Amino acid sequence: MNESRFRIFDGHNDSLLDFFPPFGDGQPEEFFVGNDRWQLDLPKARRGNFGGGYFAVYIPGEDFAEIAEAIKRGDSDALAAITVPVPYADAAYPALQLIAILFRLEEISEGQFKIVRTAAEMAQCFENNQLAALFHFEGCEAIDPDLNALEVFYQAGLRSVGIVHSRNNHFGYGVPMGFGESPDNGPGLTDAGLRLVKRCNELGIAIDVSHLNYKGFWDVANHTDHPLIATHSCAYQLCNSPRNLMDDQLDAVAQTGGIVGANFFIGFLNEEGSWEKPTPISRLVEHIDYMVERMGIDHVGFGSDYGVIPAPVDMPDISTYPLLMAALRERGYDDEALHKLAHGNWLRVLRATWGE
Ligand SMILES: [Zn+2]
Predict the structure, then answer these.
(1) Is the pTM of this model over 0.90?
(2) Sign of CA dihedral 18, 21, 25, 26
(3) What are phi and psi of 113, to 5 degrees?
(4) In CATH, what number is assigned to the domain containing residue 287?
(5) How far, in Å, from the CA of 136 to the mean position of ligand 1?
(6) CA 5 / ligand 1 centre spacing (Å)
(7) β-strand 206-208 against 160-162: which pairing, if any?
(8) Would you tell me how many other CB atoms lie within 10 Å of the CB of residue 85?
(9) Could you tell me if residue 128 is inside a domain?
(10) How far is the CA of 1 from the centre of ligand 1 (A)?
(11) Least C-beta-crowded within 10 Å: which of 89, 185, 237, 246?
(12) pLDDT profile of the chain (356 residues), mean per 10
Protein backbone atom coordinates (compact mmCIF):
# COMPACT_ATOMS: atom_id res chain seq x y z
CA MET A 1 0.00 0.00 0.00
CA ASN A 2 1.23 3.48 -0.79
CA GLU A 3 1.53 5.41 2.46
CA SER A 4 3.12 8.50 0.95
CA ARG A 5 0.01 10.61 1.50
CA PHE A 6 0.90 11.38 5.11
CA ARG A 7 2.69 14.69 5.33
CA ILE A 8 5.57 14.41 7.78
CA PHE A 9 6.95 16.97 10.21
CA ASP A 10 9.84 15.87 12.37
CA GLY A 11 11.71 17.06 15.45
CA HIS A 12 15.31 16.98 14.30
CA ASN A 13 17.62 17.17 11.31
CA ASP A 14 21.23 18.23 10.93
CA SER A 15 20.90 19.29 7.31
CA LEU A 16 22.58 22.65 7.94
CA LEU A 17 25.88 20.86 8.65
CA ASP A 18 25.91 19.67 5.02
CA PHE A 19 26.91 23.24 4.19
CA PHE A 20 29.44 23.66 6.99
CA PRO A 21 33.07 22.54 6.50
CA PRO A 22 34.73 20.31 7.44
CA PHE A 23 31.57 18.26 7.92
CA GLY A 24 29.92 19.27 4.67
CA ASP A 25 31.12 21.06 1.55
CA GLY A 26 27.73 21.77 -0.05
CA GLN A 27 26.38 25.02 -1.41
CA PRO A 28 22.82 26.00 -0.40
CA GLU A 29 21.78 25.88 -4.09
CA GLU A 30 22.43 22.12 -4.08
CA PHE A 31 19.70 21.59 -1.49
CA PHE A 32 17.09 22.22 -4.17
CA VAL A 33 18.72 19.95 -6.75
CA GLY A 34 19.74 17.13 -4.39
CA ASN A 35 22.70 14.79 -4.47
CA ASP A 36 23.80 11.31 -3.36
CA ARG A 37 25.73 12.47 -0.32
CA TRP A 38 22.85 13.80 1.76
CA GLN A 39 20.05 12.32 3.81
CA LEU A 40 17.90 15.42 3.35
CA ASP A 41 17.45 17.64 0.33
CA LEU A 42 14.37 18.97 -1.43
CA PRO A 43 13.91 16.17 -4.00
CA LYS A 44 14.16 13.53 -1.23
CA ALA A 45 11.77 15.55 0.94
CA ARG A 46 9.25 15.62 -1.91
CA ARG A 47 9.52 11.87 -2.47
CA GLY A 48 9.02 11.18 1.24
CA ASN A 49 6.22 13.75 1.63
CA PHE A 50 8.41 15.39 4.26
CA GLY A 51 6.67 18.67 5.03
CA GLY A 52 9.35 20.08 7.29
CA GLY A 53 10.86 19.97 10.71
CA TYR A 54 13.27 21.34 13.24
CA PHE A 55 16.43 22.54 11.47
CA ALA A 56 19.06 22.34 14.18
CA VAL A 57 21.73 24.96 14.69
CA TYR A 58 24.41 22.93 16.47
CA ILE A 59 27.42 24.93 17.62
CA PRO A 60 30.67 23.55 16.23
CA GLY A 61 33.51 23.93 18.73
CA GLU A 62 37.25 23.37 18.56
CA ASP A 63 36.73 19.59 18.36
CA PHE A 64 34.35 19.79 15.40
CA ALA A 65 36.82 18.33 12.88
CA GLU A 66 37.32 15.36 15.22
CA ILE A 67 33.56 14.96 15.58
CA ALA A 68 33.05 15.09 11.82
CA GLU A 69 35.71 12.36 11.41
CA ALA A 70 34.20 10.18 14.16
CA ILE A 71 30.78 10.42 12.53
CA LYS A 72 32.18 9.52 9.11
CA ARG A 73 34.03 6.52 10.60
CA GLY A 74 30.94 5.49 12.59
CA ASP A 75 33.19 5.50 15.66
CA SER A 76 30.78 5.53 18.59
CA ASP A 77 33.46 5.41 21.30
CA ALA A 78 35.31 8.39 19.85
CA LEU A 79 32.12 10.39 19.49
CA ALA A 80 30.84 9.54 22.96
CA ALA A 81 34.17 10.65 24.43
CA ILE A 82 33.98 14.10 22.86
CA THR A 83 32.36 16.44 25.30
CA VAL A 84 34.47 19.60 25.08
CA PRO A 85 32.34 22.60 26.04
CA VAL A 86 32.14 25.61 23.72
CA PRO A 87 32.46 28.91 25.60
CA TYR A 88 30.04 31.66 24.66
CA ALA A 89 32.89 33.75 23.22
CA ASP A 90 33.62 31.02 20.65
CA ALA A 91 30.01 30.13 19.88
CA ALA A 92 28.57 33.31 18.43
CA TYR A 93 30.38 33.27 15.10
CA PRO A 94 29.70 29.66 14.02
CA ALA A 95 26.10 30.13 15.18
CA LEU A 96 25.74 33.14 12.90
CA GLN A 97 27.28 31.21 10.00
CA LEU A 98 24.77 28.36 10.38
CA ILE A 99 21.80 30.67 10.88
CA ALA A 100 22.85 32.57 7.75
CA ILE A 101 22.76 29.26 5.82
CA LEU A 102 19.19 28.71 7.04
CA PHE A 103 18.13 32.17 5.84
CA ARG A 104 20.02 31.65 2.59
CA LEU A 105 18.04 28.46 1.92
CA GLU A 106 14.81 30.39 2.36
CA GLU A 107 16.01 33.28 0.23
CA ILE A 108 16.95 31.22 -2.83
CA SER A 109 14.07 28.75 -2.52
CA GLU A 110 11.55 30.62 -4.69
CA GLY A 111 8.96 29.98 -2.01
CA GLN A 112 9.68 26.27 -1.59
CA PHE A 113 11.35 26.62 1.84
CA LYS A 114 9.97 28.79 4.60
CA ILE A 115 11.13 29.52 8.13
CA VAL A 116 8.00 29.24 10.28
CA ARG A 117 7.38 31.35 13.37
CA THR A 118 3.80 30.32 14.22
CA ALA A 119 1.70 27.17 14.15
CA ALA A 120 -0.58 28.86 11.61
CA GLU A 121 2.40 29.38 9.27
CA MET A 122 3.36 25.75 9.77
CA ALA A 123 -0.11 24.52 8.83
CA GLN A 124 -0.14 26.91 5.85
CA CYS A 125 3.15 25.44 4.62
CA PHE A 126 1.67 21.94 4.70
CA GLU A 127 -1.23 23.17 2.53
CA ASN A 128 0.98 25.09 0.14
CA ASN A 129 3.50 22.29 -0.22
CA GLN A 130 6.28 24.49 1.16
CA LEU A 131 8.96 22.96 3.36
CA ALA A 132 8.39 24.32 6.88
CA ALA A 133 11.69 24.99 8.66
CA LEU A 134 11.75 25.55 12.40
CA PHE A 135 14.80 27.54 13.53
CA HIS A 136 16.12 25.58 16.54
CA PHE A 137 19.26 25.73 18.66
CA GLU A 138 20.72 22.35 19.62
CA GLY A 139 22.64 23.66 22.63
CA CYS A 140 22.46 27.28 23.77
CA GLU A 141 26.17 28.09 23.75
CA ALA A 142 25.55 31.10 21.50
CA ILE A 143 23.17 32.65 24.02
CA ASP A 144 24.84 34.70 26.76
CA PRO A 145 23.89 33.98 30.40
CA ASP A 146 22.13 37.38 30.57
CA LEU A 147 19.91 36.26 27.66
CA ASN A 148 20.46 39.32 25.45
CA ALA A 149 21.11 37.06 22.46
CA LEU A 150 17.88 35.15 23.16
CA GLU A 151 15.88 38.35 22.53
CA VAL A 152 17.73 39.00 19.27
CA PHE A 153 17.49 35.44 17.99
CA TYR A 154 13.80 35.33 18.90
CA GLN A 155 13.19 38.41 16.75
CA ALA A 156 15.10 36.66 13.96
CA GLY A 157 12.78 33.64 14.15
CA LEU A 158 14.18 31.33 16.83
CA ARG A 159 11.24 29.28 18.13
CA SER A 160 12.90 26.36 19.92
CA VAL A 161 15.98 25.72 22.03
CA GLY A 162 17.63 22.55 23.21
CA ILE A 163 19.33 23.77 26.36
CA VAL A 164 22.40 21.58 25.85
CA HIS A 165 23.94 19.18 23.36
CA SER A 166 25.83 16.17 24.81
CA ARG A 167 28.21 18.43 26.71
CA ASN A 168 27.95 21.06 29.41
CA ASN A 169 27.36 24.77 28.98
CA HIS A 170 26.52 27.71 31.22
CA PHE A 171 22.84 26.66 31.33
CA GLY A 172 23.04 22.93 32.05
CA TYR A 173 24.60 19.51 31.65
CA GLY A 174 24.30 17.08 28.75
CA VAL A 175 24.25 13.29 28.58
CA PRO A 176 26.93 11.43 26.63
CA MET A 177 25.98 9.51 23.48
CA GLY A 178 27.40 6.24 24.76
CA PHE A 179 25.62 3.14 25.95
CA GLY A 180 24.88 1.44 29.25
CA GLU A 181 25.14 4.53 31.40
CA SER A 182 22.45 6.32 33.33
CA PRO A 183 21.23 9.74 32.15
CA ASP A 184 21.50 10.80 35.82
CA ASN A 185 25.11 11.90 35.45
CA GLY A 186 25.37 15.32 37.06
CA PRO A 187 23.66 18.38 38.45
CA GLY A 188 20.52 20.04 37.17
CA LEU A 189 20.17 23.38 35.41
CA THR A 190 22.26 26.33 36.54
CA ASP A 191 20.61 29.55 37.73
CA ALA A 192 21.09 30.91 34.21
CA GLY A 193 19.40 27.74 32.91
CA LEU A 194 16.36 28.36 35.10
CA ARG A 195 16.22 31.97 33.88
CA LEU A 196 16.39 30.68 30.31
CA VAL A 197 13.37 28.41 30.90
CA LYS A 198 11.38 31.31 32.36
CA ARG A 199 12.19 33.69 29.51
CA CYS A 200 11.45 31.05 26.86
CA ASN A 201 8.04 30.57 28.50
CA GLU A 202 7.38 34.32 28.34
CA LEU A 203 8.49 34.67 24.73
CA GLY A 204 6.88 31.45 23.49
CA ILE A 205 10.07 29.59 22.60
CA ALA A 206 9.75 25.81 22.83
CA ILE A 207 12.23 24.00 25.08
CA ASP A 208 13.72 20.68 23.98
CA VAL A 209 14.88 18.20 26.63
CA SER A 210 16.68 15.75 24.30
CA HIS A 211 20.42 15.66 25.23
CA LEU A 212 19.67 17.06 28.70
CA ASN A 213 20.66 14.98 31.72
CA TYR A 214 18.12 13.52 34.14
CA LYS A 215 18.18 16.26 36.79
CA GLY A 216 18.08 18.93 34.10
CA PHE A 217 15.02 17.24 32.61
CA TRP A 218 13.20 17.46 35.94
CA ASP A 219 14.26 21.06 36.42
CA VAL A 220 12.62 21.90 33.10
CA ALA A 221 9.56 19.80 34.01
CA ASN A 222 9.18 21.60 37.35
CA HIS A 223 9.63 25.12 36.00
CA THR A 224 8.13 25.29 32.52
CA ASP A 225 4.52 26.21 31.72
CA HIS A 226 4.77 24.47 28.34
CA PRO A 227 4.11 20.86 27.32
CA LEU A 228 7.39 18.91 27.57
CA ILE A 229 9.11 18.23 24.25
CA ALA A 230 11.87 15.72 23.52
CA THR A 231 12.60 16.31 19.84
CA HIS A 232 14.71 13.24 19.05
CA SER A 233 14.89 10.48 21.67
CA CYS A 234 13.67 6.91 22.13
CA ALA A 235 12.83 4.55 25.01
CA TYR A 236 15.62 3.76 27.52
CA GLN A 237 13.78 0.59 28.48
CA LEU A 238 14.48 -0.83 24.99
CA CYS A 239 17.96 0.63 24.50
CA ASN A 240 20.01 1.78 27.50
CA SER A 241 21.54 4.88 25.96
CA PRO A 242 21.52 7.91 28.24
CA ARG A 243 20.17 9.80 25.19
CA ASN A 244 16.92 7.87 25.55
CA LEU A 245 14.16 8.57 28.05
CA MET A 246 13.36 6.56 31.19
CA ASP A 247 9.75 5.54 31.84
CA ASP A 248 9.16 8.26 34.44
CA GLN A 249 10.35 10.85 31.92
CA LEU A 250 7.99 9.48 29.26
CA ASP A 251 5.15 9.65 31.78
CA ALA A 252 5.95 13.30 32.58
CA VAL A 253 5.94 14.21 28.88
CA ALA A 254 2.48 12.64 28.50
CA GLN A 255 1.11 14.30 31.65
CA THR A 256 2.02 17.75 30.33
CA GLY A 257 0.41 17.06 26.95
CA GLY A 258 3.85 16.99 25.32
CA ILE A 259 5.59 14.89 22.69
CA VAL A 260 8.61 12.67 22.06
CA GLY A 261 9.94 12.54 18.50
CA ALA A 262 11.28 9.03 17.86
CA ASN A 263 14.93 9.10 16.77
CA PHE A 264 15.95 6.87 13.81
CA PHE A 265 19.63 6.64 14.79
CA ILE A 266 20.29 2.92 15.19
CA GLY A 267 22.60 3.49 18.18
CA PHE A 268 19.52 4.58 20.15
CA LEU A 269 17.35 1.76 18.75
CA ASN A 270 18.98 -1.63 18.98
CA GLU A 271 19.34 -3.21 22.37
CA GLU A 272 23.13 -3.34 22.51
CA GLY A 273 23.51 0.23 21.24
CA SER A 274 25.55 -0.81 18.19
CA TRP A 275 26.14 1.72 15.42
CA GLU A 276 26.92 -1.01 12.90
CA LYS A 277 24.36 -3.74 13.41
CA PRO A 278 21.90 -3.76 10.52
CA THR A 279 18.70 -2.63 12.21
CA PRO A 280 15.32 -3.31 10.61
CA ILE A 281 12.48 -0.78 10.44
CA SER A 282 10.58 -3.08 12.79
CA ARG A 283 12.97 -2.10 15.60
CA LEU A 284 12.04 1.57 15.14
CA VAL A 285 8.39 0.52 15.16
CA GLU A 286 8.99 -1.29 18.48
CA HIS A 287 10.22 1.94 20.08
CA ILE A 288 7.23 3.85 18.69
CA ASP A 289 4.88 1.12 19.94
CA TYR A 290 6.45 1.16 23.37
CA MET A 291 6.11 4.92 23.69
CA VAL A 292 2.54 4.91 22.35
CA GLU A 293 1.58 2.23 24.86
CA ARG A 294 3.23 4.09 27.70
CA MET A 295 2.15 7.65 26.81
CA GLY A 296 -0.80 7.37 24.44
CA ILE A 297 -1.05 8.06 20.72
CA ASP A 298 -1.25 11.84 21.26
CA HIS A 299 2.29 12.10 22.61
CA VAL A 300 4.51 10.47 20.02
CA GLY A 301 5.88 11.78 16.74
CA PHE A 302 9.04 11.47 14.67
CA GLY A 303 12.45 13.07 15.23
CA SER A 304 14.52 11.33 12.58
CA ASP A 305 17.91 12.98 13.17
CA TYR A 306 18.63 12.66 9.44
CA GLY A 307 21.72 14.48 8.33
CA VAL A 308 24.44 12.57 10.11
CA ILE A 309 23.06 9.20 11.23
CA PRO A 310 23.40 5.49 10.52
CA ALA A 311 19.69 4.76 9.94
CA PRO A 312 17.64 1.55 9.81
CA VAL A 313 18.04 -0.77 6.84
CA ASP A 314 15.92 0.40 3.88
CA MET A 315 15.56 3.86 5.43
CA PRO A 316 18.82 5.54 4.43
CA ASP A 317 17.31 8.99 3.94
CA ILE A 318 14.23 11.16 4.31
CA SER A 319 12.61 9.93 1.08
CA THR A 320 11.87 6.59 2.78
CA TYR A 321 9.33 7.88 5.30
CA PRO A 322 6.45 6.15 3.41
CA LEU A 323 8.07 2.78 4.26
CA LEU A 324 7.82 3.59 7.96
CA MET A 325 4.21 4.66 7.55
CA ALA A 326 3.49 1.36 5.76
CA ALA A 327 5.20 -0.59 8.57
CA LEU A 328 3.11 1.24 11.17
CA ARG A 329 -0.04 0.57 9.15
CA GLU A 330 0.83 -3.11 9.10
CA ARG A 331 1.30 -2.98 12.85
CA GLY A 332 -2.32 -1.82 13.20
CA TYR A 333 -2.21 1.97 13.28
CA ASP A 334 -5.27 3.46 11.55
CA ASP A 335 -5.57 6.67 9.53
CA GLU A 336 -6.21 8.85 12.55
CA ALA A 337 -3.24 7.45 14.47
CA LEU A 338 -0.93 7.74 11.46
CA HIS A 339 -1.97 11.34 10.95
CA LYS A 340 -1.15 12.15 14.58
CA LEU A 341 2.26 10.51 14.34
CA ALA A 342 3.03 12.14 10.98
CA HIS A 343 2.50 15.75 12.01
CA GLY A 344 -0.77 16.16 13.93
CA ASN A 345 0.81 15.84 17.35
CA TRP A 346 3.69 18.18 16.51
CA LEU A 347 1.27 20.82 15.28
CA ARG A 348 -0.89 20.54 18.39
CA VAL A 349 2.03 20.75 20.83
CA LEU A 350 3.72 23.64 19.04
CA ARG A 351 0.42 25.51 18.83
CA ALA A 352 -0.01 25.06 22.61
CA THR A 353 3.56 26.27 23.12
CA TRP A 354 3.62 29.25 20.78
CA GLY A 355 -0.01 30.31 20.85
CA GLU A 356 -1.16 30.80 17.23
ZN1 LIG B 1 21.04 15.54 18.68
Answers:
(1) yes
(2) positive
(3) -135, 125
(4) 3.20.20.140
(5) 11
(6) 28
(7) parallel
(8) 18
(9) yes
(10) 32
(11) 89
(12) 86 97 94 97 98 96 86 80 87 96 98 98 97 98 98 98 96 92 95 98 98 98 98 98 97 98 97 93 98 98 95 97 97 98 98 92
